[in-house]
Write a structure and sequence with these properties.
Elements (H helix, E strand, L loop, with lengths): L1 H19 L3 E5 L2 E6 L2 H8 L9 E4 L18
Antiparallel strand pairs: 1-2, 1-3
Length: 77
C-alpha cells in the first residue's frame, strides 16, 4: 500500500504544496491523514492512531527534485 500512497503523493505534490506548504504529510490509503512541522512530530502523533508500517510520512516540497523519501517499514524505524 505504501507504494500506492507514495505514487499518490508524487502525483498530488504540487497541490499539496499549495495547500499545506513545506510540511510533513502523513498519508494512508490515498488520503492525507495529518500535516506536521517535523518528521518526528508526524511520526509521534500518527503512531497514536495508526499502526507502524501502515502509513507513509513524506516531506512536501515545491519541486519534486528537492524531495526526500521517508518510509516506515515493519519491524521498526
Amino acid at each position: 500500500m505504501q507504494d500506492r500512497d507514495f505514487d499518490f503523493f508524487i502525483q498530488n505534490m504540487p497541490d499539496f504544496y499549495t495547500t499545506y506548504g513545506h510540511k510533513f504529510l502523513a498519508i494512508k490509503n490515498l488520503s492525507v491523514i495529518g500535516t506536521y512541522s517535523s518528521f518526528d512530530e508526524a511520526l509521534d502523533k500518527t503512531l497514536k492512531t495508526e499502526e507502524l508500517g501502515s502509513f507513509l510520512i513524506q516531506e512536501c516540497f515545491n519541486n519534486v527534485d528537492e524531495m526526500v523519501n521517508h518510509f516506515q517499514g515493519e519491524g521498526g524505524i
